[in-house]
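Job type: complex structure
Entries:
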Amino acid sequence: MTNSALSELIYSDITKTPADYEAMYPARELPEGAKVTRLGPSPTGFIHLGNLYGAFVDERLAHQSGGVFYLRIEDTDDKRFVENAVETIISSLAFFGINFDEGVTENGDIGIYGDYTQSHRGEIYRCFAKKLLAEGKAYPCFLTEDEITEIRAKQEELKIAPGIYAGWSKYRDWDKDEAIAAEVEAKIKAGEPFVIRLKSQGTPNASGDDIRRNTVIDSVRGKLEVPENFQDIVIIKTTGIPTYHFAHAVDDHLMRTTHVVRGEEWLPSLPIHVELFNYLGFELPTYCHTAVLMKIGEDGNKRKLSKRKDPELSLDYYRSQGYHPAAVREYLLTILNSNYEEWRMENPDASIDEFEFTTEKMSSSGALFDLDKLNDVSKNTMLRIPAKDIAEFLRSWSAEFAPEYEYVFKDMALLEQILDLGRHDARPRADLVYARQIMDFISYFFEESFRIEDEYPAEAAADVKAILEGYMATYDHNDDNGTWFDKIRALAVELGYAAKPKDFKKNPDEYKGHVGHVSTVIRISLMGRAQSPDVWTIQQIMGEEMVKSRIERCM
RNA sequence: GGCGCAUUGGUCAAGAGGUCAAGACGCAGCCCUCUCACGGCUGAAUCUCGGGUUCGAUUCCCGAAUGCGCUACCA
């Protein structure tokens, strides 16, 4: 039996040839330098910050170069499928501003390079597997799980590399032994299960200078000396479904991907991919192996690493806390490109599209996720978003994650005023970080959530009634900020408090306290807390009626 | 165990064979100030370790340590 006969025996149903697919999926006509990238999530629906991080690289690379960014569903692992995962993936990413030009969408595929779901592409993979079989670059392997375990045990004993490679599967060299050839043929005809393995040309267990290496340029890491592969890895599983490695080679070639962005956990399998592309006669894409994002424990600053299933790292966590997508994007960019932050300081109002993102500026060591930094970036980002937009954002956030705040959105014009408080001053306030925090920050504006949280300052506790009565006696809602405060100062002096904090500090024995203490009494009566933005401005937003009723309530 | 990748303050990081080793977040103090925030100033804090190359290494080389990853018919 020849290789070709074997390939026919196994894949008699495959009538197309690789050339047919090459013709079906011609090279893309794109401007010079345009990059084609893809995101290939498995459909578990679980997206974390790390996925977003990688997706950003893909998205920026493609859209900055006038290229194409497409979504391919990598569902070759049948055990992992979760219902509605695709919708979740698309909507989560869209929420953070990641949009695809091509590939899988909620309403079917877009683009001529499909199908974009790997489980629908079986025929294509088998066609290329058939080609490798016919060329003697792959072989059917009937080793059972038990046999493989046995082989592994033996290899461990010998202290050599585990796995199936030259010398370990008798099916590898079936064509050199008539008995095995006959066995293979009989097994296939009998319908026994088997996998297709790559027949690697590498030298097993070479060491030192004997290891042949290929030079691959990684866009993030620079020059990589990739050792040659010698493992006969599985390319088609018993189920007829390809492994990631094989699907990657076939898909990224046929879909004409130019840049493969993936986490550094793929680095060890790069040798396999180099050999596969080589065998298949495909041009190697440009790889961008990104560093993995790690996490810092919220309790203290213990260094806690984290991969998947960490709720802290889940995208939904940030959505439910109410971080604005622009803030998360901004944060990700600052850790993605070391020169971004600097650029942002120089171009505070520029669109992120104007920033030239490069893979060379990416760090090759993993960054720890830093919540403090996110919060800082967020409050500055919020400053650039109009109050009207923030109000809308909060409303949709509340509808999805925190319906208990419904009352906040009864009067959107009022909410806008509240959110804009102090944001247009010469030195604008940066109080707004994320939705949950904002809800607390503005809670005193609403009767539903107003409550007295802080105690009156000790210096003025005895005079609360006098202060509030004095305040009401001269209160005029039409006073301007200056007049209003002059009255408080006068009241303070009248009651035996220093007009300025400095006076009190100099002669603490001459006064009960200072204006600050007096105004804190007013502040607490109105806002329930000792710290807040400017009282006069808040009063203007609250309106005369609410001001008076709150003060009187405390008298 | 083997292999791969990584290693500049607490965190993110710039950086070049000779620098007082940028900057940001966080922290501390001071200033501004009716509180807070904003802003300003100041400060504490870093080149993982050991060899080598060199007149000189944080920077180049080699080891080690540490961390992470891979070592599947998972991706």
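Summary: The first helix of chain A runs from residue 3 to 10. The two ends of chain A are 102 Å apart (CA to CA).
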